[in-house]
């Protein structure tokens, strides 16, 4: 009997392109790759407006973006007419385009609530699959609840490493002056969870139901909003983050630092010990599965 092997890559690329187009249409933007200096300069200005960096601490320059694009890397923007509302920048990692690292992605305040970030990421996914790149990675601050939900639920990316103070001091309007701990996530572009998420059908977790089923609460907030640690003595562990860490850093820097330390010890410790973050409940809980002996 002859074995027939079907190449599913073209079908997957078509599926990804259709999902990206649908997301852009739903958010009312056109997403396209950028190469001209004027467009790349607009990207740098957008990033500066979002991150509000200290003088001399520009997130990225137009010269660097121009060089990156000329070397075949990814820069894309989301436009409502002629207005740039969002942008995303990534570059290849070894070996030989084995993965794309998505370094910066942001959406202007005027574009919030429209799904533009989702449209940008689905465009990036379709572009990467067109380059035969199987995985996209990026980092995010694990204390930022909305980003955890976006990355782990809406996109179905999965954390691989907890990275303490990954960038060092950044001194901008979002990160403040504290430690820049990050989660490094991997986005397996062809995996069933990612394909479902691209169809706006992501897997979801319910922390309250998991608690009723015996999940341990290893980190929570007390009545005053301070972090409180607990046992992690169950196969499934829940780890909380505050509702708005950026506002908390401004209003109470000491409590913001306390959450940084607590999350590093609890979530970072669990991941170092071999546990896996399998999802995020929008109510503010990482869902962690411990390896079974």
Secondary structure: helix percent: 25-40%
Task: Note the run of SSEs as H and E.
Answer: HEHHEEEHEHEEHHEEEHHEE
- Count of DSSP strands: 12
Q: Roughly what fraction of the amino acids lie in strands?
A: 25-35%
Q: List unreliable stretches of 5+ residues.
A: 1-6
Radius of gyration: 20 Å
Largest sheet: 7 strands, mixed
Given the structure, what is the number of helices? 9
Query: CATH superfamily name of the largest domain?
Result: Gcn5-related N-acetyltransferase (GNAT)
CATH-derived topology of the largest domain: Aminopeptidase
CATH class of the largest domain: Alpha Beta
Structural class: alpha+beta
- Cross-sheet strand order for the largest sheet: 1-2-3-4-5-7-6
Give the end-to-end Cα distance, rounded to a whole number of Å: 42 Å
Tell me, rounded to a whole number, the average pLDDT.
93
How many domain modules?
2
**Large-scale geometry:** globular
CATH architecture of the largest domain: 3-Layer(aba) Sandwich
InterPro entries: Acyl_CoA_acyltransferase, GNAT_N_AcTrfase_prd
Organism: Amycolatopsis nalaikhensis
Protein name: GNAT family N-acetyltransferase
Task: Tell me what you see in this structure.
It is a single chain. The strands form 2 sheets. Strands 1-2-3-4-5-7-6 form a 7-stranded mixed β-sheet, with helices on both faces. Strands 9-8-10-12-11 form a 5-stranded mixed β-sheet. It is globular, with a radius of gyration of 20 Å. The protein folds into 2 domains: about 10-200, Aminopeptidase (3-Layer(aba) Sandwich), CATH 3.40.630.30; about 205-290, no CATH class. With about 290 residues, it is an alpha+beta fold. It is built from 9 helices and 12 strands. The model is unreliable at about 1-5 (pLDDT under 50). β3 and β4 form a beta hairpin.
